[in-house]
């Protein structure tokens, strides 16, 4: 019997506004090492987005290599595929060295499909399962001819080419390892998946949704990454997003976090969700100034290992400069040893367009993502929906190329 743990979307280096989540990741890694030891896990699958930035900081890389060393020390085999946030070059650079530590990395599309097939052996050296480890697939990986193609035909071509890769891997696995369970790994957007605010910049629109019922044909299980909310998609073969192990945005504050435990047995694969502890609470407060003030005066910090992060949205009916002063005084005066307010904004409920401009002017630049800024620009232009869609697609492609080519010196700038 083999025991496998499926996780994804670590996003090492992630910040929520100005707060670095490095401590959250360290606590998660402490916990997952305990689980692997306690449950006698043989293999850990990491289905993409190891890092939050394509060129991670020195600290982020140190956290990554530290957990890999710890996994090697407890004799856990590791298989990693790259996600859309990852740089294939960064992940693949040390792959030969990591291979010696029983850690297999497929950061980008290899030259040969066989490079994505990995047999999993038990203690007797017998192959009990095979993994088809497929990284996030970009247009260059799919070798598409973009000349004279419309957006719809391009998307359809991409979907078909992605499916062909998974089909080919299944065929090769069946020939090399007949009657052996095949586990797929993928970093993609499946039809029906529910997303969160932290995924707004993912290139979901570029690939559109993949039909999991079709993708999983001839597989026994599909270990998915890319979507942060854990969920099981509709397909005959189990296709699960393990989700991010820690909350990456306030929209995920109530999402259960988990990893997925697979037991490979003669009669099939047994699947079990393992809940990840909450190391830090994210709290959203909404209401009038009076309501928020009362909540802060009677504040009780939720139980957690790390300080609670608080996001506040004040709702007022009409614009009032005095109210803005009162809110700032409340924010400056409120302090708590186990909680911090990291974001607040004032929303007026009337329909005056000047209000929208006032809110925008008071937004902190570090709170805006490149796509947010570009979307605001498009909203100001007299363009058709199709023109906006094409421009956004082109912008996303340029943004991805920029992230993949960014220099280490530039990495400290706020690209997330």
Per CATH, the class of the largest domain reads Alpha Beta
Q: Tally the helices: what do you get?
A: 13
Relative helix content? 25-40%
Q: Strand order, biggest sheet?
A: 6-5-4-1-13-14
Give the H and E element order: EEEHEHEHHEEEHHEHHEEEEEEHEHEHHH
Describe the sheet with the most strands: 6 strands, mixed
Number of distinct beta strands: 17
Categorize the overall geometry: globular
Please name the fourth-level CATH homologous superfamily of the largest domain: Metallo-dependent phosphatases
How much of the sequence lies in strands comes to 15-25%
Q: Catalogue the unreliable spans.
A: 201-207, 352-362, 404-416
CATH topology (fold) name of the largest domain: Purple Acid Phosphatase, chain A, domain 2
CATH-defined architecture of the largest domain: 4-Layer Sandwich
Distance between the termini: 42 Å
Q: Mean pLDDT score, rounded?
A: 86
Number of domains: 3
Protein structure class: alpha/beta
Radius of gyration: 23 Å
């Amino acid at each position: 019997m083999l025991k496998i743990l499926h996780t994804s979307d670590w996003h090492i280096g992630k910040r929520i506004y100005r707060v670095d989540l490095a401590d959250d990741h360290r606590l998660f890694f402490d916990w997952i090492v305990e689980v692997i030891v306690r449950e006698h896990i043989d293999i850990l699958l990491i289905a993409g987005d190891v890092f939050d930035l394509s060129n991670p900081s020195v600290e982020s890389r140190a956290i990554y290599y530290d957990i890999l060393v710890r996994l090697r020390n407890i004799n856990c085999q590791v298989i990693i595929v790259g996600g859309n946030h990852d740089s294939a070059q960064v992940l693949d650079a040390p792959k030969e060295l990591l291979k010696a530590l029983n850690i297999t990395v497929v950061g980008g599309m290899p030259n040969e499909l066989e490079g994505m097939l990995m047999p999993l052996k038990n203690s007797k050296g017998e192959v009990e399962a095979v993994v088809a480890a497929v990284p996030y697939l970009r247009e260059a990986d799919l070798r598409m001819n973009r000349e004279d193609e419309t957006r719809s035909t391009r998307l359809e071509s991409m979907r078909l080419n992605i499916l062909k890769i998974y089909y080919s891997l299944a065929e090769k696995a069946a020939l090399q390892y007949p009657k052996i369970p095949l586990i797929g790994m993928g970093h993609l957007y499946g039809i029906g998946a529910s997303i969160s605010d932290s995924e707004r910049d993912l290139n979901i629109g570029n690939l559109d949704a993949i039909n999991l019922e079709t993708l999983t044909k001839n597989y026994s299980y599909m270990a998915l990454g890319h979507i942060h909310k854990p969920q099981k998609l509709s397909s005959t073969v189990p296709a699960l997003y393990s989700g991010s192990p820690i909350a990456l945005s306030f929209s995920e504050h109530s999402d259960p976090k988990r990893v997925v435990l697979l037991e490979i047995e003669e009669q099939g694969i047994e699947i079990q969700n393992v809940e990840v502890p909450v190391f830090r609470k994210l709290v959203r407060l909404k209401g009038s100034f009076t309501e928020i003030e009362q909540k802060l005066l009677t504040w009780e910090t939720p139980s957690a290992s790390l300080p609670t992060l608080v996001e506040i949205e004040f709702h007022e009916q009409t614009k009032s400069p005095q109210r803005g002063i009162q809110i700032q005084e409340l924010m400056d005066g409120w302090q708590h040893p186990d909680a911090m307010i990291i974001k607040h904004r004032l929303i007026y409920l009337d329909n005056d367009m000047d209000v929208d401009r006032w809110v925008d002017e008071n937004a902190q630049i570090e709170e805006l993502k490149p796509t947010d800024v570009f979307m605001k620009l498009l909203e100001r232009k007299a363009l058709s929906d199709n023109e906006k869609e094409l421009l956004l697609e082109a912008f996303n492609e340029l943004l991805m190329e920029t992230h993949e080519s960014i220099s280490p010196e530039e990495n400290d700038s706020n690209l997330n």
